[in-house]
Design brief:
The protein is of the alpha+beta class. Helix 1 packs across helix 2. The termini are far apart.
């Protein structure tokens, strides 16, 4: 189990991504239903490193995608 900050650090150190912040990892954990489950540890949240690594290796990055061009749901 590692913190979201540690997930960001390890992803860069292992070359999975060129750069990612702890805030972006936290945002993905809140918004993406495919993100591995979080476990509360004190006031922090932790995730299984092996599940997080698999998630980021298989995740399709949509960096710079224009979300303002998507049709709005009715």
């Amino acid at each position: 189990m590692v913190s979201l900050r540690e997930v960001a650090r390890r992803l860069v150190a292992e070359g999975v991504v060129e750069h990612i912040s702890q805030q972006r990892v936290s945002q993905l954990s809140r918004e993406d239903p495919e993100f591995p489950p979080l476990h509360p540890i004190g006031r922090s949240k932790a995730v299984d490193w092996h599940l997080a690594l698999t998630y980021f290796r298989t995740r399709e990055s949509r960096q710079g995608e224009r979300t303002d061009l998507r049709p709005r749901p009715e």
